[in-house]
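Module 6 notes. Inverse folding takes a fixed backbone as the condition and produces residue identities as the prediction. Think of it as a translation problem where the source language is geometry and the target language is the twenty amino acids. Below is one complete input and output pair. Work through it position by position during the lab.
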């Protein structure tokens, strides 16, 4: 009987395992994860305190599908020639095909090692325990995750200070006018934001700045990005390029080894990208599973992510290009949409912010414009009297 092994029981690994069954694979599906919790969703970890534990699927779903789930099992070595994976308890698993869905880990910086980070349920519980009304919380990093955490902690009554090294919040992911709307909302809520901050070191209770000052907090969380979990792939000699390098079918440089989700990097419309997004992890897991079964349809899904901060929801489809011009379009009562085009007029990104789901439909339509590469006159895009659906039909 054929055995397909998946390393990483997160969003991507679980979706891949289920897709193998949905596609009719009758061999063994073995899903290994190093965490001890049953597979859970990460997005609620920064949006709810205490963190909501939301299973990726009900536990019985995996059992009923005949998926062998092994928790607390860390893969430590991969031998692509022998087609074998070794685990931290020295046990071995042999595979016919292997999927690496090892995700990412929170980035740490030299001098910041003892500050807390937020990636896992255990991290979120540790942070949430300390965030009581009046607690003084410092967040190093004003990216999307840092600002979600700021909102959630502030709603819970903590005194929040965000230290951002750059001169804009969420600068890598979001156009400046949208970041400005979110920043204004944080300031209104009482979050203290320090931009161009020169934080030189931090522990779980202290922040040191370049001027030699040291500030004390009840908790310091470092939210300075994530790094792909590539150790296993690296030691096995697989190609790495800011993630495990894969082709349009999520095949790595080693035969019968695939990689997908936050840990992998691939070419998308001429750029090498690594996405850290919930929907991408699901899509890629499903796509990689079908590729493992021989379906070689190239992957071309438009990237998309969302973030919730207070009553505002941010959504970005496509690949936002920092510093690139955009076309504005009003959406709903107070919402804003920003579209970007490349030098040839091809749509490349749409970013939107508004209350609740108010921009979801327009971002979806923008995503379709990108998917179908429909070139639109910017003047028409900017005109709310011209429906996006009409533009899509052209
Ligand atoms: C706090 C938080 C909030 C988020 N909010 C949003 C959001 O609002 N919107 C959005 O679009 N995205 C969000 N994301 C991102 C999204 O959750 C991730 O992109 C997604 O979880 C990636 O799925 P994955 O399966 O690729 O990786 P992961 O979810 O990281 O899963 C990988 C799993 O593999 C395990 N593993 C790693 N190495 C090994 C090994 N050697 N052996 C065994 N197991 C191993 C890891 O421990 C982990 O359990 C958020 C992420 C975090 C952390």
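Target side of the pair, the amino acids:
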């Amino acid at each position: 009987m054929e055995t397909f092994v998946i390393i990483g029981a997160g969003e991507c690994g679980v979706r891949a395992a289920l897709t193998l069954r949905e596609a009719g694979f009758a061999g063994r599906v073995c899903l290994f994860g190093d965490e001890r919790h049953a597979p859970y969703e990460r997005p609620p970890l920064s949006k709810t305190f205490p963190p909501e534990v939301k299973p990726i699927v009900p536990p019985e779903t995996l059992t009923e599908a005949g998926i062998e789930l092994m928790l607390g099992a860390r893969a430590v070595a991969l031998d692509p020639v022998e087609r074998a994976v070794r685990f931290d308890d020295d046990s071995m698993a042999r595979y016919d095909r292997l999927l690496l869905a090892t995700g990412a880990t929170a980035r740490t910086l030299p001098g910041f090692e003892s500050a807390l980070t937020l990636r896992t349920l255990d991290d979120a519980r540790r942070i949430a325990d300390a965030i009581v009304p009046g607690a003084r919380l410092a967040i190093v990093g004003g990216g999307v995750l840092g600002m979600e955490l700021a909102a959630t902690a502030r709603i819970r009554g903590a005194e929040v200070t965000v230290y951002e090294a750059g001169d804009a919040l969420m600068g890598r992911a979001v156009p400046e006018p949208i970041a400005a709307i979110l920043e204004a909302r944080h300031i209104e809520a009482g979050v203290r934001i320090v931009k161009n901050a020169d934080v030189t070191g931090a522990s779980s209770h202290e922040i040191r700045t370049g001027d030699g000052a040291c500030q004390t907090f009840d908790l310091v969380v470092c939210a300075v990005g994530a790094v792909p979990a590539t150790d296993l792939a690296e030691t096995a000699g697989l190609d790495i390029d800011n993630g495990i390098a894969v082709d349009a079918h999520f095949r790595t440089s080693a035969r019968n080894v695939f990689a997908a989700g936050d840990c992998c990097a691939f070419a998308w419309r001429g750029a090498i990208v690594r996405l850290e997004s919930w929907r991408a992890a699901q899509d890629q897991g499903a796509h990689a599973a079908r590729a493992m079964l021989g379906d070689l349809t190239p992957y071309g899904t438009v990237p998309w992510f969302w973030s919730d901060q207070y009553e505002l929801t941010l959504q970005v489809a496509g690949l936002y290009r920092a510093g690139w011009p955009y076309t504005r379009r009003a959406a709903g009562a107070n919402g804003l949409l920003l579209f970007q085009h490349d030098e040839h007029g091809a749509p490349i990104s749409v970013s939107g912010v508004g209350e609740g789901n108010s921009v979801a439909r327009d971002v979806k339509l923008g995503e379709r414009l990108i998917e179908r590469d429909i070139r639109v006159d910017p003047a028409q895009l900017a005109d709310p009297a011209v429906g996006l659906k009409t533009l899509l039909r052209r």
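Reference fact for the lab report: DSSP finds ten helices and 25 strands in the chain.
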